[in-house]
């Protein structure tokens, strides 16, 4: 099962809303395993990076999200 809040997490990353990202993850963290959450955060990391939200990128990096992942075109943002 995927983390069902991926779309919401990506939208918040696009907006640069770190506080809402923290609330979303805190609220639902206990319902999902760490792998599901990190996978969702990897996707949101691309969005935050694309829109220049460095504080959010740093938050994901500090959480331990894989920063060497590549998108479908082989691009590492």
Summarize this entry quickly.
The protein is mostly helical. The chain has helices spanning 6-15, 18-28, 34-50, 54-63.
Q: Can you offer a commentary on this structure?
A:
This protein is an all-alpha fold and 77 residues long. The protein has one domain (6-63). It contains 4 helices and no strands. It has helices spanning 6-15, 18-28, 34-50, 54-63. Helix 1 (6-15) packs parallel to helix 3 (34-50) and helix 3 (34-50) runs antiparallel to helix 4.
Q: Secondary-structure map with pairings?
A:
Layout: H1 6-15, H2 18-28, H3 34-50, H4 54-63
Protein name: ANK_REP_REGION domain-containing protein
ANK repeats: 40-72
Pfam families: Ank
Low-confidence stretches: none
Give the total of beta strands: 0
- Overall structural domain count: 1
- Order of helix and strand elements from N to C terminus: HHHH
Global geometry: globular
Q: Helical element count?
A: 4
What is the CA-CA span between the terminal residues? 26 Å
Overall helicity: 55-70%
Task: Name the average pLDDT.
Answer: 87
Q: What is the rounded Rg?
A: 11 Å
> Largest sheet, if any?
none
SS-based class: mainly alpha
Report the sheet-strand fraction. Answer: under 5%
Protein name: ANK_REP_REGION domain-containing protein
Keywords: ANK repeat
Pfam family, one: Ank
ANK repeats: 40-72
């Amino acid at each position: 099962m995927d983390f069902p809040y991926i779309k919401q997490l990506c939208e918040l990353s696009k907006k640069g809303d770190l506080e809402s990202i923290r609330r979303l993850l805190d609220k639902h963290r206990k319902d999902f395993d760490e792998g599901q959450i990190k996978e969702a955060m990897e996707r949101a990391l691309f969005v935050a990076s694309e829109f220049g939200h460095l504080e959010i990128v740093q938050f994901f990096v500090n959480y331990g999200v894989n920063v060497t992942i590549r998108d479908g075109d082989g691009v590492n943002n």
